[in-house]
Amino acid sequence: MAFCSKCGAQLGEGDKVCPSCGNLVDGPVVASGSNDTLMGVLSYLGILALIPYFSKGLSSFARFHALQGMNLFLLEIIAGVAIGILSYVPALGGIVSWVVSLGSLAFAIIGIVNVANKEMKELPIVGGVRIIKQ
User: What is the DSSP-derived secondary structure letter of residue 17?
Assistant: First the structure.
């Protein structure tokens, strides 16, 4: 799977031009250095996702993970509000809270493993949800 070196959008096989930004395709993108790894890991650590998201001059690898992390963070906020509302139902609120917490932790670990493996993979299930677009 290849990604655009300018915007990080996923490219189809044989694409010569990025369908998202119109950039000429050079080849697949991989992470270049430890700064990319640091920014990628920060992307999946809750509110710390704001650091790479608002940083300038990120590689497409770090930008991809910053967007994934911000979308995950916003989904966690939405889930927190829903849990707050469900907390008025004693048993249901506690169960949903545990499930959402474990799910958030699992997605964060998957994202960090993808960063460590220098892969630009979307998170399962929530990776397709785009609250913040490129």
Answer: B
pLDDT digit of tens for each residue in the chain (134 aa)? Answer: 566 666 667 777 777 787 777 777 665 544 445 688 899 999 999 999 999 999 888 888 889 999 999 999 999 999 999 999 888 887 888 888 899 999 999 999 999 999 999 888 999 988 888 888 76
What burial class does residue 14 get, using C-beta atoms within 10 Å of its C-beta: 0-12 exposed, 13-18 middle, 19+ buried? Answer: exposed
Residue 25 burial (C-beta neighbours within 10 Å; 0-12, 13-18, 19+): middle
Distance in angstroms (rounded) separating the CA atoms of residues 71 and 83 = 18
Cα–Cα distances in Å, from 52 out to 34, 39, 66, 71, 128? 13, 5, 6, 13, 20
